[in-house]
């Protein structure tokens, strides 16, 4: 899926922002938030460059998951009380 999204950019198709899992050499999976946009020639059709940036959001995603798990546990406890 990640490679197909990158290929869209190379093919001249625009995609705004996306979260992409990246497999590291050590086997870890990191999540990056990726933004890209194409720069077109004056004809408006020919892609002459792609501008892209990314940021590693793995720690943020892990923190979000911990919060979700904590909320689920609290919901279960509340149901048991009532």
UniProtKB/TrEMBL annotation:
Residues 16-69 form the PAC domain. Signal peptide: none annotated. SUPFAM superfamilies: PYP-like sensor domain (PAS domain). This is PAC domain-containing protein.
């Amino acid at each position: 899926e990640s490679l197909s999204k990158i290929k869209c950019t190379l093919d001249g198709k625009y995609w705004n922002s996306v979260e992409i899992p990246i497999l590291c050499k050590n086997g870890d999976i990191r999540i990056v938030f990726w933004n890209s946009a194409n720069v077109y020639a004056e004809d408006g059709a020919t892609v002459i460059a792609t501008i892209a940036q990314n940021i590693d959001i793995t720690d943020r995603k892990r923190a979000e998951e911990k919060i979700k798990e904590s909320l689920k546990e609290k919901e279960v406890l509340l149901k048991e009380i009532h």
